[in-house]
Amino acid sequence: MGLEQFKNRNVGRQDYVMLDLGHTPETGMGKFKQVVRRTVKPELFVGLWVTFREMINALFRGKMHTVKYPLEKLPISPRYRAIHEMLRLLESGHYRCIGCGLCEKICISNCIAMETRYDENQRKEVTEYTINFGRCIFCGYCAEVCPELAIVHGPRYETASEQRASFSLFEDMLTPKDKLDMQKEFEGFGAVSPNADENIKKTPLAY
Amino acid sequence: METVTYTQVETFVNNLPEVTAAGVWIKAIIILAIISAVAGFGTYLERKVLAFMQRRLGPMHVGPYGLLQIIADGIKLFTKEDIVPQNANRLIFMLAPVITAATAFIALAAVPVFPDFTVPEWIPVLGGTFVPSIAADLNIGILFVLGTMAAGLYGPLLAGMAQANKWGIIGAARTAIQFLSYEVVTGLSILAPIMLVGSLSFVDFNNAQAGGIENWIVWKQPVAFILFLIAGFAETNRTPFDLLEHEAEVVSGYATEYSGMRWGMFFIGEYANMITISIIAAIVFLGGYSEEGIGWLTIILKVGFFFFLMLWVRASWPHVRPDQLMWLCWKVLMPIAVINVVITGIVMMV
Amino acid sequence: MSEVKQAENMVTITIDGKPYQAKEGEYILNAARANGVFIPAICYLTRCSPTLACRLCLVEADGKQVYACNAKVKEGMEITVDTPNILTERRAIMEVYDVNHPLQCGVCDKSGECELQNYTLELAVDEQHYSIADTKREVKNWSSVLHYDAALCIVCERCTTVCKDMIGDAAITTVKRGGPALDKAYKTSMPKDAYAMWNKLQKSIIAPSNGTDQTNCSDCGECIAVCPVGALSSRDFVYTSNAWELKRIPAVAPHGSDGFQIYYEVKPTSISDRTEKIYRVTNEWNYVSLDGSARFAYDFQNTTAQKDETAFAKAFEAFKKAKTVRFNALISNEEALMLQTLKERLGLKLYNPEVRPFQKFLGYYQEASGNRFWNSDPDTVMKTADFVVSVGVALRHDSPSSKYAFNNVQKMNKGAGLYFHPVGDTLIPKFGKNVECVVHKPGTEEAVMYAILDLFADKEKLPEEVRKYIEGFKRTEKRTVTEKVTKAVKEQVKDEETGEMKEVTKNVVETVEKEVEVEINGLLETLGVDADAFMASFEKMMKKKESFALFVGEDFYGHPRAENLAKLVALVEKCCDMQTVIIPPKSNALGVALICDLDDEVEGYTIGYNENGDFKLSALGDGDLDMPAMNQQEGTLCNIGKRVLPTNAAVEYNGYELNDLMKALTGAPNLTIDWTEKLPIEKGFKSVRFDDLPNRFENDGTDNRGYKLENPSEEKPLPSVEPFDEAAVLEGESIVYRCNPARQFNDFTDKAHEIFEAFGLYASPEKAETLGEKVVVEFANGSIELDVIADEKMTGDIMKISDFKAAKGVYDLFGAYRYQTATVRKV
Question: Domains of chain A, with CATH numbers?
């Protein structure tokens, strides 16, 4: 490999577009001419105009960018993975979690723990559920693996609190009963795809 | 400040009551209070204007529309720990900000800041005292103002050298060259209007332009106006010539080791200087407060325009390199200024 | 006779083109499994009879479709596991299993260990072609421990099979489900085997076999272990944990002397309490079947223990002034060795009433036979024997593994069994139609042994005087026997159609009386048996029998004539071509017997280790110094199979161990398990480090846990036995028998929350009625007040008194012998 090849190794196709930047003046006269040219050309005033225009836009045309964050919040993608929420069934208000423990199993930072028992209705009752948010890396596996869409990532991304435990118990994460009508269906990781029906073979039913 | 007290020069003011020491005192206090406040308010304005030009909101949380931000900042500056670096020259380190602030306010002594008024009779003790528009109406006002502002160079220079910090030293060096160089341009550019008016008194300048916009000196001396404006930006350390404390190159320059109220004094001095330069430009080139009846309003508008211009420019333009700064000063601006003076002289003689 | 011969004829078979070795007469499925070849099968259990419920194990052998679980290998057999037809059948079968199976895998306790799930995936069932209306199937609790979710049940019948063939309780069976019949169209459209399997599945469900809602069984929970789906589980475990969260700790069931392999399955107690707790016990159910104490008595750990330095100092002082250490069989070999070291160094006496009689008996046996140990174990009996005799064992209570072997021989080896015991039992006769129960008087065990010699011994080998002694019991009697004789009679019959007379030969049965000489065996009469009837059925039992086994139990060890009994056992072993198992009483009795020189008397200041004493070391949390329970310590235990088995700590322990005391008293290695390699080699132990001990079963079921104790034998002349001493016989109506209810062995089983069997006086229902609710039993040296509990499976007048509570001092009341005459008064 020659030196030239060596220098040019691994530099892509080298189809660069060269910009015409002009020449740097070398003589005093050349520099003076450049100054005059630049002074006379209204470049500087274009700059002034741009900023002034933006100010007008911002103040009078409602194009202000700023979101007054704690008071206003931008809509967040359903795929965003913030603090978990435990959803309820809309019809009965019972929590959706069936206590299968898949989230606990799949959790790669091993921060989910749950307690279950056999209840009076012969169902598996979740007596306590907790996520150690000091350890959670918000990978979203739990929401993805949940067969009931019971644990989902909510939009609550402000995770600062005085106590780590503040969000982490079942009650904290569960949709409050009185706000059941405000519960939104989850569209993020693990949600049923819109064309799910097409991918399922139907089981024959005798009744 | 006590410097005002010995400005006991007898000044001739047409058709005005006698200027008493009490009036001068009141004026001095007004200047100090108002300009300090306005300097603070200037920081608020600067942040707001810059924000608007970037389509942001700027300070919004402290008080309505963030208006109390100045007070919050003041409280913060006053309550911060006073730190003096270990190897600094303590005395000079502590003195330097005072020099900056003091020279800025001294310069304002010879500048007409607000219209004159008489303290209402019902106020005890001071009732009936006449408060002049200029604390000390010198016949060499312009020279005095330019001189004190030039002396203000000592503030950053000493601060930079006293703090035993390499960024401070570089900042100080830049201060020296920048201020000294542009001092020349300022002086030369303003020489032509002085020649036209034939006085160094601001009052004379004001009177000379009375009678309408067409009498403004800016029409006669546009080149001098632009040169003065450019030099003024450099003198006040504004973008595009804010090289003294350019963060990307020299941290905070001469102010690197300063914090709290000491740093605050540099800040106030800088904003006071901005106002001073704006007032000079307004009086010398844009007719001052000469408009009949509404002079006090027009000068506020004119000063406001210049202040806004400084912010506007900061929002729009990038700054230059130090070498370009020097090149511009000595090879472009100064020759133009000299030529302008010569041409003015020739025109006056012809 | 040395170890039982394992020689089996090996044959060569070919599976999918590869040659393999297999034992002759073995089922194809077992042969394949032993060789690591996979044949799908759900319903088959290795040590039980084929059920033929699932039909998945269909293979092609020599061109014919057979069920691998039910077809035996032959020399040169060529087997194909998958043919297109078989694959279609299997796939259809799995689809059928998935019909109406609830889709609640998320909450199912099987949690991924499900065979239904595995085979559904294995056979790639991704589509369902069959359907039928579902039947409502209720969730039921069958007993205090069994939970049955019928909806999940696939009626593979593994539970019923294991209960019948292994456990012997036969407490559950298939009953009618009451579901709709299959659509006729399926019969033609479906693969044949799948249809047959579905037809059966659709009709049946599992239920207690006594027709009620409650099983009447020993609550061993083996049905839970073998259930391939989540239908059967322990009531305590339901919905408390997923299998994958549980950490498996290999261990040995500590209570009985069977040394069952178990896993303690642990995970943190709760979210707030992260200390680990045992959630359940599982086992390698293909190779070992547990009893209830092994499976359910797991939470006996000492949780209160802390390192209490004052208590430790007091314990140190106590050992300094102590004269005796009293302990029991529930102790690891290492700790037993520590105590023995204390005896040697400090001159302490070791008192262990549970083990001492056994140790003596073992000594007599060794003296008489020249063998260090008995020559067989329940596992070998299960595999090889076809005639089992049990003497001196309360089979349902003392040794579950022996009970399972006794039962399994009947079911799997077409075997026969003789059960000699003074306490009548209603369950054991049901093990098989060739099982005879002989209820003899307590104290006549010698006569039983002589009877066994008479029945099984090679008379040539017997010493002359013994043969004569036995012959002396026999006499001949003349009896009139009615016999049926068939005679051919010729008759003239008129043909109705033709009117011709014909001569027709007819067979006519006549009854003839005959006088016969009958040999009457007086020995059997001594035992209270109708000798004639017994001999008749015995002859039937002996048909085609080749391999005999004898279980000898705890009744012998404390027997007044123990020495003579030991000699008789040795004689039986030598003259009868019989495998023998001497069942160690409880836990690690064998280890203690080998390691410790036990004393007969308590003397002076006594330290009780899990026993009464002046200073009490206790793993129950009630003593003066806490000790770790068996599930909190590492160590080895010796079992009935003469193996040294490693067990591990499942639960955290924070207090002092015996080894800490040893360090202070005599100096000791760092860890308890450092004693393992110091176990006495002259007693059969090997110098192996604890961490090097293997702990697993091989694919073909070979037990490879720990190591087998060395069992050298020296040639000895036949022991000279004494005649039967009638003085030892106990008579009367108030004989009590020291015997625990099944699942209870000691204070630790009692502490476990899933063991409910009460402490008391157990009697047959009739006897219990006469006794009332509460009785005082007066012995020569004291009395005890007991609740009366009726045991439906008992017959006769003898009453059983539990001994599992050390504090009640039952051992001291009884003395060494398990039978005592006592006064039983109503309260």
Answer: 15-65 (no CATH), 84-192 (3.30.70.3270)
